[in-house]
Prior knowledge:
Low-confidence stretches: none
Largest sheet: 8 strands, parallel, barrel
Radius of gyration: 19 Å
Amino acid sequence: MKYATRVNSFLRDKISVLEAVKRIASVDGVDYVDLNYPEHFKEFTPAQVKAEMDKYGLKLNAINMRFRDIYLNGEFGNANAEISRKAVSLCKEAAKVCKEMNGAQIIVWLGFDGFDYSFQMDYVKAWNQAVACFKEICDDTDLPISIEYKPYEERVHAMIDSFGTTMYMLQAVNKKNLGVTLDFCHMLMKSENPAFAAALLLEKGLLYNVHLNDGEGRTDDGLMVGSVNLWKSLEFMYYLKKYDFQGAIYFDTFPKREPAVEECASNIAMCRKLEEMVDRIGLAEMERVISANSAIEVQKMYMKLL
């Protein structure tokens, strides 16, 4: 597996993006970095950031869109058409930067497209605007564009809030370079089983990116991988291995008290342990257990691993 990590986990020490890149490079096993646009390019140019990454042998996995300030009332679905247009332009800018830095894709999380109160949003108008925006962005670049969904936070109700609405958006946009980023914690917040969505997307070649973390399922906890939902994490890893996922696993965790370098290393160690557990049982045996459709067989497999 290939691993990428979250720059902001390192920025909490009040260091620059370039210094964060240097610290990330010190973690054995991390070969990729995700960057936020435009957030991580306020102090340094894309060329400067890329030069620092090249210096330490790091590659750009993805650029994550970060909409702030004027977008608090919505991005693509904003009732103000001018702001919606600016959101599209920002994505196009990010795609150009991503290509300049030899990145793999753009990840779009529309955190402010949603509503807090009944009668606050014209649902059909906002949805159709978002469809048109995604179509325009996909047509403007040959880069993969990936939708990351989250049920709530920043809004009480997100417009693209689940696996179901995300797939509906993919169907409506109908572009070959549009896919999905799955965030483990976001799926838990929606009471989804992460492996279910992963299996369906992997089978169709639509899983573009993985944000791995863990949590209790109520908020976006960003806890270390496998620290709460070990068996769900194991099943998720099983499907990544079964379908030979070639993307990078990005650690979207929030080490607020833990040293960022050690926390990242711990995530890699847990992923490797999960891989080892899958290998110990074997893909064929896990497939047999699934085919048996028996909770008893599942428990027997668990006990072999304990």
